[in-house]
Specification:
22% of the residues are buried. By secondary structure, this protein is α+β, with helices and mostly antiparallel strands. Helix 2 (124-132) packs across helix 3 (141-151). The chain has 4 helices and 7 strands.
Length: 167
Amino acid sequence: STQCLRISMRSKRIYSKCGDGHVDKNEDCDCGHQQICDKFTNKDKCCDSKCMFTKGQYFCADGDCCKNCEYSVNICRPSRGECDKEEICSGFTNKCPLYDFVSPNYKICRNEEGFCYNGNCMNSDYMCKYAYKDSRVFFSSACISLISDILDPETNNSMDEATKFFF
């Protein structure tokens, strides 16, 4: 697989140059070392070895939202469940939007067995058991405010513990 060659580095860059695989301010594109670029990452031949688009009307050379050297409108991330909608490329950038489309928090999901929270369907009964620290407690309207406090990162850092109750 060539995916490992496309992983971007997260470390701080000391200097930039054409052929390093990172698009800098003065570059249209940068698919990496010329041999790697020609063989693996530049299949549509959008980018040349001088880090310029091969044709003036090209807009991109790679990315989930780049097809045939142009920005595309396609599904770039599938839905992760009932509370999360698929992400669709805008047609104006080569990057997929990041988790923009989620259902409103506390919307009922999974045939009324859970509720949406930050794009995940949470099991209400388990959340109430956790909130009250009592295995005999079940979901009720009185439990909603306590759950809300637990999930609020400004009042409590229990989100890591609470996420084990996702469906």
